[in-house]
Write a structure and sequence with these properties.
alpha+beta, seven-stranded antiparallel β-sheet, five-stranded mixed β-sheet, 7 helices
Length: about 450
C-alpha cells in the first residue's frame, strides 16, 4: 500500500515538472561543415570533388595523414571517390584525397550511435556517502557521447543541481554522482538525464526514494578459526566494508553457515558485531560461512553475501603410540593362538611374539643390542671349546685316534704282592747325586705309582 502511494506521488512529480519548470537544455549539436555523419554498420562513400575533375583517375586517399593505398587493413580502389563498407567507431577521422602531389579535398567522418533510453539504477553505499546512478548501454557508445544529470529536491521551491556523468567503454556503463545529500532528509528526488551526441539527443526523467537507495557493500576479510578443545565450535571474524566509512552510522549483520554435507544454511542476526562463535558445528566436517550487512535500523536493503570462507572444528590429535597399540588390539583373536600358550607363560612373564612388519619397520633395533648378542655368542663358544678340550683329555685319545703317551696303562687282575707299610719307606726319594747316571737321564720315580707327583694325569682325572 505504501509503495502504491509513493508511486502515485512520483508520477505526480514527473507530470508537474514540465509545467512548473522550464525545459532543461538538452539539444543535439549541429553537424559542422565538411563532416559526414554515419552510424555503425553503414556503407559510406566519400567524394573527392563533386562536379569537378571527375575524369581524374590518378587520385590517392590518406587517412589522418597516412596513405591508404599502403594500408593492409583496408582495400582502397583508386578513383575520385572512396567507398567504406560497414564503418565503425575506429573509422572516424579525417580523409583527404590527393592528385599529383596536390591536395584536392579534406573530409571528416564521424561514426556515432544514437542515444538509447536509459534504465537508471541508483544506490548509496553509506549514509555518509553520495548517491550513484548508473545505467548500461546495449551498444558501445563513442567517446563523444555526453550525459548530464539534474537533481531536484521535491517539486517546488528548490533549484536543480547539475552533475556530469562518465562513460566507461569497457563495461559500457554511464555513472553519475549525486552529492551534497549527507545530512539531507529529502524523501523524494526527481532526476533528469540528458544524453547527446552528433547522432541525436535524448531526455529522460525518473524519481528515486532516498530511503531505499541505501545498500552497503559486502563485509570483507571473513575468517573462520577452530577453537582449541572445542570440537563443536568455530570462531568467525570479519570487517565492515571500507566504503561504509562512518563511525556514527552503524551496521547489523547476518551470518549464515552450513556443513559440507548439507545444503541448508543456519542464519543468525547480529547487531554491530564483527565476530561470532558457532556453537553447533559438526565435528570433523568443513563448514562454509558468509556474512552480509544492512543499516542498523533496517534502512535500505541488505548487501550481497561476502565471499565464502571455510573452516573445520578442532579435533584431538592422535598419539602415535596409541595408534600403534590400537592397531595391535585390532588383530583378530584365534583359538590356535590360545593352544600354543605354554604353562610358564604367565601375565608376569608374557610370551614375546613377533610384532607386525609395520611396527618393526617403524622401530629399528639399537646398535648395542647387536653388541650384546655378539658378546654372548663369543662367551658361549669359548665355554663349548673348553668343555670339548677337557673331555678329550679324559677320553685319552688324540684327534687322530692314537693313545696318549702319558696315559696310565691298563692293569691286569693278577694279585699283587703286599706292599711294605708306608712308615718303612719314605714319601720322597733321597736326592740323587748330580754326578750319578740316573740323575742325568731321568729322575728316580716309582714305576706306575698312583701317588707319583710327576703324574699329571692324576690331577686331571675326575
Amino acid at each position: 500500500m505504501w509503495l502504491v502511494g509513493a508511486s502515485l506521488v512520483a508520477q505526480l512529480i514527473v507530470a508537474t515538472t514540465s509545467s512548473v519548470y522550464p525545459e532543461l537544455p538538452c539539444e543535439q549539436p549541429v553537424v559542422p561543415p565538411n563532416v559526414i555523419l554515419g552510424q555503425p554498420g553503414m556503407n559510406i562513400t566519400l567524394p573527392c570533388l563533386q562536379g569537378e575533375l571527375e575524369n581524374i583517375t590518378l587520385v590517392h586517399w590518406a587517412f589522418n595523414g597516412q596513405n591508404l593505398s599502403s594500408s593492409p587493413a583496408r582495400q582502397v580502389v583508386p578513383g575520385p571517390s572512396l567507398f567504406l563498407p560497414s564503418v565503425y567507431y575506429n573509422d572516424s577521422g579525417r580523409y583527404s584525397c590527393h592528385s599529383g602531389g596536390r591536395l584536392l579535398s579534406s573530409l571528416r567522418l564521424m561514426v556515432e550511435e544514437p542515444p538509447q533510453e536509459p534504465n537508471i539504477t541508483c544506490f548509496r553505499r553509506s549514509l555518509a556517502k553520495d548517491i550513484f546512478c548508473e545505467w548500461r548501454t546495449s551498444h558501445l557508445m563513442s567517446i563523444r557521447t555526453k550525459a548530464k544529470l539534474w537533481v531536484r529536491k521535491t517539486f517546488v521551491g528548490v533549484n536543480h543541481t547539475e552533475q556530469q556523468c562518465r562513460y566507461y567503454t569497457k563495461s559500457r556503463k554511464f555513472s553519475c554522482r549525486i552529492g551534497g545529500l549527507n545530512d539531507d532528509n529529502t524523501f523524494f528526488l526527481l532526476v533528469s538525464i540528458c544524453i547527446v551526441n552528433l547522432a541525436g539527443a535524448l531526455r529522460s526523467h525518473t524519481y528515486i526514494s532516498t530511503d531505499i537507495l541505501l545498500k552497503p557493500d559486502s563485509p570483507v576479510d571473513v575468517v573462520v578459526n577452530a577453537m582449541e578443545n572445542n570440537p563443536n565450535q568455530l570462531f568467525v571474524t570479519w570487517r565492515k566494508p571500507p566504503s561504509w566509512g562512518s563511525l556514527f552510522y552503524r551496521l547489523q549483520f547476518q551470518l549464515r553457515y552450513r556443513a559440507e554435507a548439507s545444503r541448508i544454511y543456519e542464519v543468525h542476526l547480529l547487531t554491530d558485531l564483527t565476530s561470532y562463535t558457532i556453537s553447533d558445528a559438526l565435528p570433523g566436517l568443513c563448514h562454509t560461512v558468509q556474512v552480509r550487512a544492512q543499516e542498523e535500523f533496517g534502512l535500505g536493503s541488505w548487501s550481497e553475501w561476502s565471499r565464502e570462507a571455510f573452516g573445520t572444528p578442532w579435533t584431538e590429535p592422535r598419539d602415535p603410540e596409541s595408534e600403534a597399540t590400537s592397531d595391535i588390539s585390532e588383530v583378530p583373536f584365534h583359538y590356535e593362538i590360545l593352544s600354543t600358550i605354554k604353562p610358564w607363560e604367565t601375565p608376569e612373564f608374557p610370551q614375546i611374539t613377533n610384532k607386525p612388519a609395520v611396527e618393526d619397520a617403524a622401530a629399528p633395533v639399537p646398535l648395542y643390542t647387536f653388541l650384546i648378542m655378539a658378546a654372548t655368542v663369543t662367551v658361549g663358544l669359548a665355554l663349548v671349546v673348553g668343555v670339548i678340550v677337557r673331555y678329550r683329555k679324559k677320553w685319552g685319545t688324540s684327534p687322530s685316534g692314537e693313545e696318549k703317551p702319558g696315559s696310565v696303562p691298563p692293569h691286569s687282575l693278577t694279585l699283587l704282592a703286599p706292599e711294605p707299610p708306608l712308615s718303612s719307606s719314605p714319601l720322597l726319594s733321597p736326592p740323587a747325586s748330580p754326578f750319578s747316571e740316573s740323575s742325568v737321564d731321568s729322575p728316580s720315580i716309582l714305576d706306575h705309582s698312583p701317588y707319583d707327583v710327576s703324574n699329571a694325569d692324576y690331577f686331571l682325572l675326575p
